[in-house]
Design goal:
Elements (H helix, E strand, L loop, with lengths): L1 E2 L9 E6 L2 E6 L4 H10 L1 H7 L6 E4 L2 H7 L3 E5 L13 H20 L2 E3 L7 E4 L2 E4 L5 E3 L9 H18 L4 H5 L7 H7 L2 H4 L2 H18 L3 H10 L5 H17 L20 H18 L4 E4 L5 H8 L5 E5 L2 H13 L4 E5 L19 H4 L4 E4 L3 H5 L6 H11 L2 E6 L5 H6 L12 H11 E8 L6 E7 L2
Parallel strand pairs: 10-11, 10-13, 11-12, 13-14
Antiparallel strand pairs: 1-2, 2-3, 3-5, 4-5, 6-9, 7-8, 14-16, 15-16
Helix pairs in contact: 4-5, 4-11, 12-13, 17-19
Length: about 475
């Protein structure tokens, strides 16, 4: 039994893992809410509408005793937990729309979401799903949208700076657990962008009044609180629906990409591409991994190949935003169990939040059965100066078996990479790559690619 570290902020419930099970123990302060949620059937209704992750009440006296609580919920396990700063623009947009649609549905059924944390939305393949059943509470007539600022910081603001300014939000977002502040967002916008009615209502005016309130004394703030008008249900729904309409129209039209057409514009001829696909197919058929890591997934071509021949789930990683957008569109259009995520492999997501435990780093979440890393390692070894030994250790930490494509210096791609810099990579040779790999793993097979110097190594880690 292990407590999920990110659940400590909720005083009414705590989430644990027991083997592969996700169990929520209801604390004393949450028992009244638990009865309300279960007796009203709102959890079942939310699951039926595909808003909420599979959740059910369970009775297990042993678990209750271990958790020291009287009530339990069990949630369906997410194959891979991802975070909003790892999503591409359209994933964050879909997550925002899912959150708004869910809140609208709840309010129409006299419930509401009491927070707007983007971390409460996860992806199973290409589909967003809400995971925190205890963020649902009863709607009381006159309730304000208390989570409005949180929604802006974690959903709206990142989308705006990318859509309006062409600034990728990922690294900015990762630097602040709570997202991107409204004050910072307003500073990036032009006067005319601020005059958009939705931006004016949700960002500019709240930021203006917040700035003014900071200079008020305590008596002024008490008076302001007394005068604050409450929403009726129709006003609340109007605000959510108006925001939904605005976000639905946002596009990432300013995105520049070097790699998004790599699947059709690369150094391979058609036959070589077929050989690579055949190698991947044979590997997947042999191992049928439940969850596969595709490092440098690009537009998802080999992730799709893997799923078509027996792979159950693929998590892809890439640095290029344009490629990630294409891969996400591929996943949605073809209904693939494929989740592409943003990853700077030389600076991956780390442990952050309170006590550095709330959001778990990339390696700590790596529980992959297998990996494929095709045309990937040279980008770290040559472009980022990562020694081969460190790189191979990293691959083996990610998955116990896999395919790694080695690209030699004589390859045209590396010749281009070294055109304007000194070749300091004396140890970057295939013999050295093979020697280091053999120290730590068995080489099951070396796959040659016809009319190419590249080779694909199949390995199994020595336990």
């Amino acid at each position: 039994m292990e407590k999920i570290s990110g659940s400590f902020r909720d005083p009414s419930a705590t989430v644990f893992t027991i083997g592969d099970r996700i169990i929520r123990g209801i604390n004393k302060s949450g028992e009244e809410k638990f009865r309300l949620l279960t007796e009203s059937k709102i959890l079942e209704k939310s699951i039926e509408k595909n808003f909420l992750i599979g959740t059910q009440k369970i009775d297990d006296e042993d678990i209750k005793k271990k958790l020291n609580c009287n009530f339990l919920l069990e949630h369906k396990k997410i194959p891979y937990v991802s975070y909003p700063y790892e999503w591409s623009f359209y994933q964050l947009k879909d997550a925002a729309l899912h959150h708004l649609d869910f809140n609208i549905f709840l309010i129409e059924n006299n419930f509401q979401l009491i927070d707007a944390s983007a971390y409460n939305v996860q992806f199973i393949g290409n589909k967003p799903i809400f995971i925190d059943a205890f963020s649902i509470d009863e709607y009381m007539e006159g309730s304000n949208w208390s989570a409005h600022n949180q929604f802006c910081q974690q959903f709206l603001n990142p989308l705006l700076i990318t859509s309006y300014k062409g600034i990728n939000y990922n690294n900015w977002y990762r630097g602040n657990l709570e997202g991107i502040s409204t004050e910072e967002t307003c500073k990036t916008l032009t006067f005319f962008q601020k005059m958009n009615p939705t931006v004016l209502l949700n960002l500019v005016l709240p930021n203006h009044f917040e700035s003014k309130n900071k200079s008020k004394n305590i008596d002024d703030l008490k008076l302001l609180k007394i005068k604050k008008r409450k929403f009726n249900k129709n006003s609340y729904l109007w605000m959510l629906k108006n925001l939904r309409k605005f976000i639905f129209k946002l596009q990432n039209s300013k995105e520049r990409s070097f790699w998004k057409n790599y699947d059709v514009e690369n150094t391979y001829d058609q036959n070589q591409s077929k050989i690579k696909k055949k190698i991947v197919e044979e590997f997947i058929k042999k191992h049928t991994p439940q969850i596969l890591c595709d490092l440098g997934c690009n537009t998802g071509e080999f992730s799709e190949v893997s799923l078509n021949v027996g792979g159950k789930s693929v998590i892809g990683f890439d640095f290029d935003q344009g490629a990630l957008i294409k891969s996400y569109n591929r996943s949605k259009e073809k209904k693939l169990n494929f989740l592409p995520l943003y990853l700077d492999a030389s600076n991956p997501s780390s442990n952050i939040g309170w006590n550095q435990l709330e959001r778990v780093g990339f390696l700590e979440r790596c529980k992959f059965d297998a990996l494929i890393a095709l045309a990937f390692e040279h980008h770290l070894a040559i472009a980022k100066n990562i020694p081969l030994e460190n790189l191979i250790d990293w691959f083996l930490d990610i998955a116990p078996k896999g395919l790694i494509e080695f690209v030699p210096k004589e390859d045209e791609t590396i010749k281009i990479m070294l055109r304007f810099r000194k070749d300091i990579f004396e140890e970057y040779t295939e013999d050295n790559f093979k020697k280091i790999l053999l120290k730590k793993a068995k080489i099951i097979k070396i796959n040659n690619i016809e009319n190419s110097l590249r080779k694909i190594y199949e390995y199994e880690k020595i336990s």
